[in-house]
User: Fold this.
Amino acid sequence: MSWYIEDKIKEILFKLVSIPSISETEGEVAIEGEIYDLLNQIPYFQQHSEYLNKHAIENDKFGRYVISALLRGRGDRTVIVFGHHDIVDFDGYGEYKDYALNPEELTKRLDPDILPEDARKDLLSGEWLFGRGINDMKYGQALGIALMEDLSSEAEMLSGNILFVSVPDEENNSVGMLAAVPFINDIGKKYALDFRAYIINEPDFISSDSGMHNFFVGCEGKVLPVFYCMGKETHSTEVYKGLNAGTMIAEIERQMNLNIRFTDYNEGHFTGPPTVLQIRDTKEHYNVSTCAYAYSYYTLYTVSKTPDEILRLLKDTAYKAFDQVLEQFKSSCADFEKLTGIRHDCPWTPKVFSYEEIYAYNLSDIGQSFDIHMKKYMKENRSKFKDDRLFTIDIIKEVVRLCPDKEPKIVIAYGPPYYPHRTNKGETEKEKHMLKVLDRVNEYSQAKYHKGWQLKKYFGIADLCYTGIDEYESVVKNLKPNMPILGNGYSIPFEEIKKLSLPVVNIGPVAKDAHKFTERIHINSSFEMIPDVFKFAVLELMK
Ligand SMILES: [Zn+2]
Assistant:
């Protein structure tokens, strides 16, 4: 007989799914109350109330919490079972919206004929359960709570400890995970715990060709490079007297768009090339002046490139774009002269600064008053911007405005969010232990369920990214000073993350279509094999 009670996991799962805990809403606080209550009903936490905690997230506009529950066995080895309890919205359910949070009802009512073919087949098979958040990732949180309940009855027999952590905001800015890391460090210090590994149950989108389940042991990273162009404004009847920032940003976009120089590679895994998320000039209304300023920002996924390598590439790209714009300007001047006999010159040379460089330039030229002004400026203007990218642009704009050098230039910075990439390199003792454990889990699963697991080095962007920082030095040296908003309404506890760098593994339910109205989990495996394999993995990891 297995440890889990299928009905118990289902009961918790349905309770969690029923709460509309959409990212950045009060629903997150509601589900935090529910998760706390569910854990609080476990006799162990009634006897050891000090181990169950609601940690308030500082300065959070929704008043959200991180929930933690510590189960103490013998010794100090501790496995962190973590996950998120927020979901994306469910507007996409259309006429089924009222049932999106009621998996049994939704699965019963869905009309197979309106579904895409794969979802239709699954619905008709009766083997799948549909609902918002059911795989991403309330199943994981239900499993974690059920495991805590199961093991709590004989906690003193465990060879180590389990720390269960549930966070909000994963689907948004990872505010929950970023707040959780210092809390976890505090708990570790308070009880002298030796943290061994993180384990999470995000959905596993198994490809039907291999049929293999996946152990994800890392995640891609993401940076958001910003280009800010300062041109030279002129009247549009005197085009050769100025340099159009619109042209500059367009050429940067031409150089950046799908540029495979930015594609990253590691251990058989490639990331896609960059694409622009926003590109515009800063004019707010029509006039006959040319664009003086323009900006763009990109998403860039990483698996091995460090912030300094990326910065070098970005600068190189910016120089190329600048060269190209000036070449075109010069060739137009020559053609115009041939045609009219009127001569114009190009007085500019390419100038590219990183944010750190232009800040240092201003500081050395203007002095300390520049730094004092900027700090005050950021503080006073923070609340004017709902979007962190726009605030980033505004800070750069102010630095450029104060720059004694009034010639055209390009400034490169990083905007939020930042997600460090990481994976298990099998280097540290804990990493090696994790890989050995996963071998054993695979053997266990093969023998008992005839189901095999394969190691996958990278999951997509998720809270997993904050389970450690592999390139700490480069991040501190090159990313921090080039991200203007850091410490001004956006923060990443780099030191705390580095301190808690641990190997991570995702052991997830067989799932499809997260974030779509056809989100679903496979019933049999999710309530039979996965709970068993998950428990086996947790117990092995704490050895
Ligand atoms: Zn998720």
